[in-house]
């Protein structure tokens, strides 16, 4: 989804007419009690973004939060911790891998992965080596397999 909430229609029209630069994307991830991958999930649990994009973690069901994982965050990226039952907005400036967890359901495997831009082999290896609780590790491994 492209966010066109700019100040006034003229700015939006100018943006639509202009071929460059590519507008930053607005990507939505839902926090759900039940999804295609089972109970307590981020959906989708893997997204690919570009630097400057915004990822919105929406509390589609209650009792969830979204926060960045200290052991899976690009160097120099600012950690973000969303409040319970609130949308968490993550604007990704740095390329790399951003691991996301829901604190209450981390041990139940409620994790997501955001790939921003290109990821080096060393960075992918480091992410795969990060220590996670067993159910979280299982879903994170599946997400890391989608990185390319
Ligand atoms: Cu949760």
UniProtKB/TrEMBL annotation:
**Subcellular locations according to the entry:** Periplasm
Please classify the protein's predominant subcellular localization into one broad category: periplasm
Q: Which UniProt keywords apply?
A: Copper, Electron transport, Metal-binding, Periplasm, Signal, Transport
Its domain of life reads Bacteria
- Pfam families noted in UniProt: Copper-bind
From the UniProt record, which GO molecular function terms apply? Answer: copper ion binding; electron transfer activity
Annotated ranges, domain Blue (type 1) copper: 30-116
Cofactor(s) recorded in Swiss-Prot or TrEMBL: Cu cation
Q: How is the cofactor bound?
A: Binds 1 copper ion per subunit.
Q: Mind telling me which NCBIfam families this protein's record contains?
A: pseudoazurin
Under which name does UniProt file this protein? Pseudoazurin
Give the lineage. Answer: Bacteria, Pseudomonadati, Pseudomonadota, Alphaproteobacteria, Sphingomonadales
């Amino acid at each position: 989804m492209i966010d066109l909430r700019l100040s006034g229609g003229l700015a939006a029209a100018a943006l639509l007419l202009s071929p460059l630069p590519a507008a930053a994307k607005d990507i939505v991830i839902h926090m759900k009690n039940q999804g295609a991958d089972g109970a307590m999930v981020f959906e989708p649990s893997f997204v690919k973004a570009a630097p400057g994009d915004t990822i919105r973690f929406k509390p589609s069901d209650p009792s969830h939060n979204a926060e960045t994982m200290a052991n899976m965050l690009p160097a120099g990226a600012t950690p973000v911790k969303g409040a319970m039952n609130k949308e968490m907005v993550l604007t990704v400036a740095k390329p790399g891998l951003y691991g996301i967890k829901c604190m209450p359901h981390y041990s139940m495997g409620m994790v997501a992965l955001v790939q921003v831009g290109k990821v080096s082999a060393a960075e992918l290896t480091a992410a795969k080596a990060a220590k996670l609780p067993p159910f979280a590790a299982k879903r994170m491994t599946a997400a890391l397999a989608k990185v390319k």
